[in-house]
Write a structure and sequence with these properties.
By secondary structure, the chain is an alpha+beta fold. The protein folds into two domains: about 180 residues, Bira Bifunctional Protein, Domain 2 (BirA Bifunctional Protein, domain 2), CATH 3.30.930.10; about 40 residues. Helix content is about 20%, strand content about 35%. A hairpin with a 5-residue loop joins strand 10 and strand 11. Helix 2 crosses helix 4. The radius of gyration is 17 Å and the shape is globular.
């Protein structure tokens, strides 16, 4: 069982192993025990998951954390702020990450981190997994880990992540947008929207994806495109 620790202004609840930090956050919210700026950290997960409830392999040695923030309304710009925060945290250790829409951080075109954002009641849960000392073998894509590039003290990684979360979630979205465009791995490349090809141009000031199809520009939200 974990205990609460105050770290960089967060209430940190730390476990050696639980089924899922994301599911634990949902339980806190549904039971009325959720507190704004809570972080649930696990050294390992037995039932970690990503988007579409895909399994997230969660052995010891990596970072698995879910943040709870008060958010009475959905924020379409939040995912960009979180992606930039994670990418900048990884970059601060000398790596060169890129962001693959919607929720993957890559190094050398290999996945090193994933993000899962879910809303529950008046809160949003931001789940983040970062491969630090191990990386799973996955059929769908290549993976890598931070230890391949630099020695990573786990406490320092967590500290920097929390500071970058605060920095980028509270930043003017123009700065977030500019940084995301700097790091975007799929810009000016083909995607599919509603089954038809288009070019991903960028994001606008409201967090919509900007696509170009022939001479037309389209604004797209959510999971309507595939890369």
């Amino acid at each position: 069982m974990g205990g609460y620790i105050n770290l960089v202004g967060y209430k940190l609840l730390s476990f050696d192993k639980i089924p899922s930090t994301q599911d634990y956050a949902h339980e806190l919210i549904s039971s009325g025990r959720a507190v704004n700026r809570t972080a649930i950290l696990a050294a390992a997960q037995s039932a970690g998951r990503g988007r579409y409830r895909r399994k997230w392999v969660s052995h010891h040695g990596n970072l698995y954390i879910s943040f709870i923030f008060l958010s009475p309304e959905r924020n379409p710009r939040l995912s960009y702020s979180v992606a930039v925060a994670v990418a900048d945290t990884i970059a601060s250790f000398g790596l060169h990450p890129t962001i693959k829409w919607p929720n993957d951080i890559l190094v050398d075109k290999k996945k090193i981190s994933g993000i899962l954002i879910e809303y529950s009641g008046d809160y949003v849960i931001v789940g983040i997994g970062i491969n630090v000392n191990s990386n799973p073998t996955v059929d769908r894509y290549k993976t890598t880990k931070m230890d391949n590039y630099s020695e990573i003290p786990m406490n320092e990684l967590l500290n920097r992540l929390m500071r970058n979360m605060d920095k980028w979630i509270n930043a003017d979205f123009r700065a977030v947008r500019a940084r995301w465009m700097d790091l975007g791995a799929c810009l000016n490349r083909p995607v599919k929207y509603q089954g038809e090809p288009a070019i991903l141009v960028g994001i606008n000031e409201n967090g919509a994806l900007v696509l170009r199809r022939d001479t037309r520009y389209l604004l797209v939200y959510g999971d309507e495109i595939s890369i």
